[in-house]
Sequence to fold (105 residues):
Amino acid sequence: MGFGKMNKMMKQVQKMQAQFAKLQEDLRQRTVEASAGGGMVKVVVSGDQEIKSIHIDPEAVDPEDVEILEEMVLTAVNDGLRQAREMVAKEMSKLTGGLNVPGLF
Fold:
């Protein structure tokens, strides 16, 4: 490989690194919302897999049946995390042209 091609490839790598950094910051700002129990429990998750908020409708709180509330929270959190991962995968796919590059995000 000639020096010119190597230089061009290095510039492309640098450009892609800058795009990844911007995308990562973008995804930190984006959120998804998931709910369970007909909306009685709502969870907001950011693109960097951080739980931003959990809202529990007071009607979901039954001291006699805490297990149902725990299940709704668990369901909403897991769904929110799944949606956030899907959002990240979709955006990364746009940037990588559909290539699956392990460990990028």
Observations:
- Residues 66-96 form the longest helix (31 residues).
- Residues 92 and 103 are 11 Å apart (CA to CA).
